[in-house]
Structures are given as C-alpha cells and as structure tokens.
C-alpha cells in the first residue's frame, strides 16, 4: 500500500529534514505531532496523491530521521515556521496547503498567520489555533493543572528524555494507547513522586487503528537518535514561554486564509480547551470553511479515523481549487 512513497532528505535553515513524498500536483504539507513521525500520515498519502496532490510529510526538526540540533532554544515556533516556509521553496513550490496534527497544528496555524502569502489553506487536527504572543502559557498551565501537568513535567531537561528513551517501543505504545484508556478527555497529570510512564497503563491489546507493524515503523524512526530519541520533540515544549515572548508583536493576529479544524470528541485536548475557549479560538479563523467533530475519536485523529479525516481534507482541498 505504501510502496509508492518516496523518501529523501533536504537541508533547510541548516537542519537536514527527512521527507516522505507521494504524488504530483499542488503541494500539501502534512506536519506530525508528539511523539510521532511522518508515518502518522500513512493513511493519507495514497488518497491525496490519487486525487491529484503532491503530498509531503517531513519528520520535523528534532524528530525521527531528521537532524536534532543540540540547543534547546533551536526549537522555537519561529524556527519551526521557518522550516516550513523554507521547505515550500526547497520543493520548488510557490504556495502550499499546510496541515498539522497535535504539535504540527500550532506550526501550521502559525505558518498561515505569519506567511499567508505562502499558504493557500490551512488545516489543524486536534489543536485549535492558539494565540500567538500573550501571557506565558506555562503560568496558566500551573494555575489550572498544577506542577504535575505533563507540559510542566517536560520542562526539566533530561528527565522525561531518559524515561522515554529507556524503552522506545514501550514508551510509544503506552503513550499512543494510554493517554485516554477509557475514552474520557482529561488532562495528562503526573502525580508527585511518580514517573511519566507510571501514569500510562500497559494496554491489554492494541487498539484497532494501531498494529505491531505500525509500532515497528515508529520505533525504527525514533531509534535514529538513541538515548536522545525523544529530546528533540520535548524541546518543543521547553520553548512554550519563549514562543510567547518572541511572538509578542503578533498578539491578536488572525489566520486570514481558508481554514479547516478537525477534532475527536474524546480528545484530551477538550479537557484543556473548554467549549467557550474553543469558540474564541476558532474566531481567529475568519475564513473557517469547516469544523468537523468526530465521535468516538481520541487524540490520534488521522490514525484513529483515517477515512473521515482524509474525506474532510479532500473536501477542503477541492474547495480551494
């Protein structure tokens, strides 16, 4: 099914990125989240390519088969947007549709907000268009969820890195299967005295959307960086407050290109973004063309509901042509 996907590398902004690519036509960039890789879009490649699009999914800066800069502050949102904008040019395109899931969504939204000249349309999965600039987000996270909130837990360099890298496959399996074991949205909290994986039950069996072969692929990607397997992705979280400071000039900016938002009704993000906050955030999208809510769907949107997500993306893409 995936034989037609081509793999290559390109250097942008001094960072060597691994790319997975299929198809010809208008460029569609697919940006993964944490802890994933290009492979999280495995179900979308063929249908989008068959519909006449050039589909490119990078391993983003610090992840999987892409290079991992050493410095923590090399992973700001401005660096990540810079990678996307440079990638559009490196691929010989003038503009692209940018689609992101989880952490890939803030990168997609920010790219569209800061460089609308390069973005024909933007789609975010799971994470809505969070404000650029504004108060330091970790302060609010501490007030709302406490010191055990996973984004706070990730701040200490080396701690979560070592815990997750000790057994890459187990970490991936337990995160992908365990952050919502009963299907109820709730914030990921690590109680005092516990370690990260103590909060994630070992699944009795894999969910229908995840196979051992899928875990093989993710594990192989993450093993590229050995004991730093998760450090690049964790460094994205370590720049949350820095992002707000660097983007202060863009506080209140809207995303002024055609937009789509897709989210699962059981996504844990719903526990962090209540309905009234979501309505405010979607108000930042004056050209919102679709808001798709997927029942019985958790955080791993395009993997859990590939047909529905692909269908929503194709409808959105056709609306741009």
What would you say this structure looks like, in words?
The structure is a single chain. With about 325 residues, this protein is of the alpha/beta class. It is about 35% helix and about 15% strand. Strands 1-2-4-3-5-6-7-8 form an 8-stranded mixed sheet. Helix 2 (about 75-90) packs across helix 3 and helix 7 crosses helix 8 (about 210-220). The model has no long low-confidence stretch (mean pLDDT about 95).
Task: Give the strand line-up of the largest sheet.
Answer: 1-2-4-3-5-6-7-8
> What structural class do the secondary elements suggest?
alpha/beta
Alpha carbon gyration radius: 18 Å
| Strands, total number | 8
Question: Quick one: biggest sheet?
Answer: 8 strands, mixed
Q: What distance separates the N and C termini?
A: 27 Å
**Unreliable spans:** none
Reading the helices and strands in chain order gives EEEHEHEHEHHHHHHHEHHEHH
Relative strand content: 15-25%
Helix content: 25-40%
Gross morphology is globular
Q: Helix count, per DSSP?
A: 14
Question: Could you report the average pLDDT, rounded to the nearest whole number?
Answer: 96
Topology:
Layout: E1 6-12, E2 15-22, E3 27-31, H1 45-50, E4 54-58, H2 77-90, E5 96-101, H3 104-114, E6 119-125, H4 137-145, H5 150-153, H6 159-165, H7 168-178, H8 212-222, H9 231-237, H10 240-246, E7 259-264, H11 269-272, H12 275-282, E8 288-294, H13 301-304, H14 306-320
Parallel strand pairs: 3-4, 3-5, 5-6, 6-7, 7-8
Antiparallel strand pairs: 1-2, 2-4
Helix pairs in contact: 2-3, 7-8
Keywords:
321 residues, alpha/beta
């Amino acid at each position: 099914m995936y034989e037609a996907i081509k793999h290559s590398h390109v250097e942008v902004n001094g960072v060597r990125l691994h790319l997975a690519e299929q198809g010809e036509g208008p460029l569609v960039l697919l940006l993964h989240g944490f802890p994933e890789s290009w492979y999280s879009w495995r179900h979308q490649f063929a249908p989008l390519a068959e519909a006449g699009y050039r589909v490119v999914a990078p391993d983003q800066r610090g992840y999987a088969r892409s290079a991992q800069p050493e410095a923590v502050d090399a992973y700001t949102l401005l660096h990540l947007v810079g990678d996307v904008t440079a990638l559009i040019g490196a691929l010989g395109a003038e503009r692209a549709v940018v689609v992101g899931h989880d952490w890939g969504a803030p990168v997609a939204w920010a790219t569209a907000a800061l460089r609308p000249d390069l973005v024909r349309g933007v789609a975010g999965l799971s994470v809505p268009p969070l404000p650029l600039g504004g108060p330091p987000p970790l302060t609010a996270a501490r007030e709302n969820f406490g010191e055990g909130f996973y984004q706070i837990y990730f701040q200490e360099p080396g701690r979560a890195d070592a815990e997750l890298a000790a057994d890459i496959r187990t970490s991936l399996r337990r995160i992908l299967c365990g952050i919502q074991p009963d299907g109820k949205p709730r914030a990921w909290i690590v109680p005092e005295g516990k370690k990260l994986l103590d909060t994630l039950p070992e699944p009795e069996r894999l969910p229908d959307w995840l196979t051992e072969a899928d875990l093989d692929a993710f594990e192989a990607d993450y093993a590229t960086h050995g004991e730093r397997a998760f450090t690049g992705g964790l460094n994205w979280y370590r720049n949350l407050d820095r992002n707000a400071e660097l983007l202060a000039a863009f506080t209140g900016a809207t995303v002024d290109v055609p937009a789509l938002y897709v989210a699962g009704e059981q996504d844990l993000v719903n526990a962090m973004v209540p309905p009234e906050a979501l309505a405010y955030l979607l108000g930042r999208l004056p050209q919102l063309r679709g808001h798709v809510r997927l029942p019985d769907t958790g955080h791993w949107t395009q993997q859990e509901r590939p047909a529905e997500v692909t269908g929503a993306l194709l409808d959105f893409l056709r609306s741009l042509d």
